[in-house]
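PROTEIN DESIGN WORKSHEET
SECTION A - STRUCTURE
LENGTH: 268
TOKENS:
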């Protein structure tokens, strides 16, 4: 039986371990770290104030090794210690630790986990190359695709107007809640087909587009956002059939399965 990915355990242990002190083995933090890693030594503090303050840890990659154990890369975000009561996260640095974890299925369904050695500080992950996207045809800003998308995103992100009027029949999409956006501009729209650059084609014709959007919140902060959408022509206009945010289609691939759209009450 395949053991569970122990990313959460590695993340928790790294946070505890980075906050622990070998001179204070009885502290709750040290005991919690030892509960996950009984044979792993704790850091030894000098007694001086640390130059960095740990803000948070996040597991970023898990790899199952040939012997069945796991190696989990955990990012630790630090901020420089200042005279202020709270550290300034705007000057944060990120360090990375590889954590070796043994994982098995335990009684009660909670699983069994043991960190078998101290974390190894490692360099950060490399930057993966970005494949060429098919939506490389820039559309006019006042065209028959960009114009309804401006109205769609205003309704979707700010709640002004109705989202449904811009959707294909059978597609449902709830507007974003709690963002505090007060204004939206569509900076650029690109498509994967020349059919989107001109008069609206016959009903049923589809296009994949990417919209570069800037949303402004009540504080005046501007947030650059990117959306990949599937559009379908109907009755002389383009309608949103799927919102595939975060899952762009790459050249030579089929459209990804959207998680925000439903047809006939079932997820698509």
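SECTION B - SEQUENCE
RESIDUE ASSIGNMENT:
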């Amino acid at each position: 039986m395949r053991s569970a990915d122990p990313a959460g355990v590695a993340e928790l242990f790294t946070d505890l371990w980075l906050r622990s002190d070998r001179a204070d083995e009885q502290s709750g933090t040290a005991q919690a770290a030892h509960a996950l890693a009984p044979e792993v030594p704790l850091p030894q503090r000098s007694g001086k104030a640390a130059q960095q303050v740990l803000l948070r840890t996040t597991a970023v990659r898990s790899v199952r090794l040939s012997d069945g154990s796991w190696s989990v890369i955990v990012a630790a975000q630090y901020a420089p210690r200042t005279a202020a009561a709270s550290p300034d996260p705007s000057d944060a640095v990120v360090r990375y630790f590889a954590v070796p974890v043994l994982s098995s299925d335990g009684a009660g369904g909670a699983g069994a986990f043991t960190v078998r050695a101290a974390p190894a500080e490692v360099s950060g992950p490399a930057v993966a190359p970005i494949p060429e996207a098919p939506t490389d045809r820039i559309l006019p800003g006042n065209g028959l695709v960009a114009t309804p998308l401006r109205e769609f995103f205003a309704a979707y992100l700010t709640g002004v107007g109705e989202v449904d009027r811009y959707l294909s029949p059978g597609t449902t999409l709830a507007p974003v809640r709690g963002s505090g956006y007060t204004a939206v501009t569509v900076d650029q729209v690109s498509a994967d087909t020349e059919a989107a650059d001109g008069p609206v084609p016959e009903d049923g014709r589809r296009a994949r587009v990417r919209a570069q959007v800037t949303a402004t919140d009540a504080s005046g902060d501007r947030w650059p956002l990117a959306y990949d959408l599937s559009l379908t022509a109907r009755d002389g206009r383009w309608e949103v059939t799927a919102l595939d945010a975060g899952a762009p289609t790459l050249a030579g691939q089929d459209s990804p399965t959207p998680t925000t759209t439903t047809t006939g009450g079932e997820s698509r």
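SECTION C - NOTES
Residues 16 and 29 are 6 Å apart (CA to CA).
The first helix runs from residue 7 to 19.
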